[in-house]
Specification:
Elements: E1 2-6, H1 12-21, E2 25-29, H2 37-45, E3 49-50, E4 62-67, H3 75-79, E5 86-91, H4 92-100, E6 108-113, H5 118-128, E7 134-138, E8 141-146, E9 149-154, H6 162-175, H7 178-182, E10 196-200, E11 211-214, E12 222-223, E13 228-229, H8 230-234, E14 242-246, H9 247-254, E15 262-266, E16 274-280, E17 286-296, E18 302-311, H10 316-331, H11 336-344, E19 353-358, E20 361-367, H12 373-382, E21 389-395, H13 406-413, E22 419-423, H14 424-433, E23 440-441, H15 445-453, E24 457-463, H16 466-469
Parallel strand pairs: 1-2, 1-4, 2-3, 4-5, 6-10, 6-11, 7-10, 11-14, 14-15, 15-16, 20-24, 21-22, 21-24, 22-23
Antiparallel strand pairs: 7-8, 8-9, 12-13, 16-17, 17-18, 19-20
Length: 472
C-alpha cells in the first residue's frame, strides 16, 4: 500500500520518516514548497519519494492520504488526479495515534485543545501531575520533568500533531543515551523517564489521550481556505476515550455527537457536570467553590461532590480554564487534595498570563501569539473598576494563521473607560482608527518605563510570540 503524506511544512517530514522506518512505502507532497535541503536528504535516505499530485496518475491499487487538518485541498480534488485508486484519508492527528498507541498504552495521557487557554491549562495540569514526571508538548516547548526538575527537550517546537511523536522520540533519547547503551551502563534500550503525558494541540487532538480536554471555541475561525473551521477541527477531541468540554461549546457545536463519556464544565450552566458555586476574584489568588455531579471517569465510575481551591486565575476566562483542568483530573480519578495542592502551586506562566512586581507596582502580562478580541476583552475585564492601572494593548501581525479583527477591537476599546496605551504594529494600526487617539509607543519597553515613572500598575496585553520578548 502507498502512503501519501501531504504538507511537509507542518510536521509531514517527521510523519514520513516515522512511517518509512516502520517499513511503509511513503510518498510525500510538499504543498507549500518549503522543504529544507537537510530534510530532503533525510527523506531520500529513507526511500521517501517526493511527488506532485499529477504523479498520482501513475499509481495503482490502494493509497492512504495523510493530510493536515487545515489542508487547503478538498478530498475530491485529490481523487480527481486518479479516480481509479482506492483512497483512504487520515489526518496528521490520526496517524500520530496509530504510530504511538502501543508505545504509550500503559501511561496516563491528556490532550488539550481549544481556541484559548491551552498552554496555561497544560501547565496547571503539570503542577497537579508533577510527581508523575510528565512529558509535555506545549507552545513553550517540549519538556520533561524528572524528580520535579524541568528538562528542555526542544525549545522552538510547534504544537502540530507530528511534534507529539517528536517529543516522545526526544524523551527516549534522553533516557537511552547511545554511549551508555554501547558501554553497557544501562540494562535496557526501552527506559522511560516519564509516567504521564500532556500534549497541547492547536487544531484538535490525535485521540491518543485517556482524556481529551476542549477548553472553548472562543471564536470559530475558518481554516483550510474556508473548507473547514476551528470547531470542525477540534471535533477530533471526541476520538479520546473520555472528553471534557466547555458546556457552551458543546451545546453550540457538538450536541449531536455520540460518545459514551462526555463531561461538561461551565461558569454559568448548572446543568453541566462541573459548575461554579462561588468565585472570589483576586489578582493574587482567586477562590473557587465548585460542584460536580455524574462525572464519568476513565475507570467507568460515576462520581459527584464539591471542591474548593485557590489559584492564580484573575479573570473569568482563567477560571473557566481551571474548571476544565479540574474536570479532567476528576475524570482521571486524581485525589482532590492533589488537585487543590497542584493548583495552589500554579502562579501563572511567562508567555501567557503572568503576574509580577516592579517595586510596589503590580504588572499583569498577557502575552500570547493567538490573542484575539474576546481574549483582550476578558483581560481588561479583570481590572474593571480599578483606576490605578494603565492598560497597554499592542503586538505583532503575521505570527498565527488567525489574525485580529481590528474593527471589533476598536469598538470595544472605545466602549470602556481605561487608561489606554498602544504599542507595536497592532497599536499603531489601532490608533489610526480610534476616534480619540491614545498615547502610542513604538517600543513596548517604554510602556513599562511610563508605568514606573507615573506610579501606575500595568496590564500589558501583547499579541506576540513570547520568545521575542523574553530577552528583555
Amino acid at each position: 500500500m502507498n502512503n501519501l503524506v501531504v504538507d511537509l511544512t507542518h510536521g509531514g517530514v517527521k510523519i514520513s520518516l516515522s512511517l518509512a522506518k516502520k517499513g511503509e512505502k511513503v510518498l510525500a507532497y510538499d504543498i507549500y514548497n518549503t522543504l529544507k535541503s537537510i530534510d530532503l536528504k533525510m527523506l531520500e535516505m529513507n526511500n521517501v519519494k517526493l511527488i506532485q499530485l499529477d504523479d498520482l496518475k501513475d499509481l495503482k491499487g490502494d493509497l492512504t492520504v495523510i493530510y493536515p487538518i487545515h489542508m487547503p485541498l478538498g478530498f475530491d480534488e485529490i481523487k480527481s488526479k486518479n479516480p481509479n485508486l482506492n483512497y483512504t484519508f487520515k489526518s496528521h492527528h490520526e496517524i500520530i495515534k496509530d504510530l504511538l498507541e502501543s508505545e504509550l498504552s500503559d501511561i496516563l495521557k491528556i490532550e488539550v485543545t481549544g481556541v484559548k487557554g491551552k498552554t496555561t491549562s497544560v501547565f496547571m495540569l503539570k503542577e497537579i501531575l508533577i510527581d508523575e514526571n510528565p512529558l509535555i508538548l506545549s507552545s513553550l516547548g517540549a519538556l520533561l520533568y524528572d524528580d520535579k526538575k524541568e528538562i528542555t527537550l526542544k525549545k522552538d517546537i510547534s504544537i502540530t500533531p507530528a511534534n507529539i511523536k517528536e517529543s516522545v522520540d526526544l524523551a527516549y533519547k534522553i533516557a537511552n543515551p547511545v554511549c551508555e547503551i554501547a558501554e553497557g551502563n544501562v540494562e535496557s534500550e526501552n527506559l522511560r523517564k516519564y509516567n504521564s503525558c500532556i500534549f497541547e494541540s492547536s487544531l484538535g487532538v490525535s485521540g491518543i489521550g485517556d482524556v481529551g480536554l476542549l477548553l472553548n471555541i472562543a471564536e470559530d475561525y475558518p481554516i483550510a481556505k474556508g473548507l473547514s473551521s476551528a470547531s470542525q477541527a477540534k471535533k477530533q477531541v471526541f476520538r479520546c476515550d473520555c472528553v471534557c468540554i466547555q458546556k457552551e461549546a458543546y451545546d453550540e457545536y457538538y450536541a449531536d455527537v455520540e460518545h459514551g463519556k462526555i463531561n461538561t464544565f461551565s461558569l454559568n450552566d448548572f446543568e453541566s457536570n462541573l459548575f461554579v458555586k462561588n468565585v472570589d476574584y483576586n489578582l493574587n489568588l482567586t477562590g473557587i467553590e465548585a460542584e460536580y455531579k455524574n462525572v464519568k471517569t476513565i475507570n467507568d465510575n460515576v462520581i459527584s461532590g464539591t471542591i474548593s481551591l485557590k489559584t492564580f486565575a484573575p479573570g473569568r476566562h482563567h477560571v473557566s480554564n481551571v474548571l476544565g483542568v479540574v474536570l479532567t483530573c476528576l475524570c482521571l480519578e486524581i485525589d482532590s487534595d492533589k488537585i487543590i495542592n497542584g493548583l495552589g502551586n500554579f502562579k501563572g506562566i511567562p508567555g501567557r498570563t503572568n503576574k509580577k512586581m516592579i517595586g510596589d507596582l503590580v504588572v499583569i502580562e498577557e502575552i500570547n501569539p493567538g490573542l484575539n478580541t474576546e481574549a483582550i476583552k476578558e483581560s481588561i475585564n479583570m481590572i474593571s473598576g480599578l483606576d490605578d492601572f494603565y492598560v497597554s494593548v499592542g503586538g505583532d501581525y503575521g505570527i498565527t494563521c488567525e489574525e485580529i479583527d481590528e474593527k471589533k477591537l476598536r469598538k470595544f476599546l472605545e466602549s470602556v473607560k481605561i487608561n489606554l496605551i498602544l504599542t507595536g504594529d497592532l497599536g499603531a494600526s489601532l490608533n489610526e482608527k480610534l476616534t480619540d487617539k491614545s498615547p502610542y509607543y513604538e517600543n513596548y519597553m517604554d510602556v513599562y518605563d511610563l508605568a514606573v515613572k507615573n506610579n501606575k500598575n500595568l496590564l500589558f496585553i501583547y499579541r506576540s510570540d513570547y520568545r521575542k520578548l523574553s530577552q528583555r
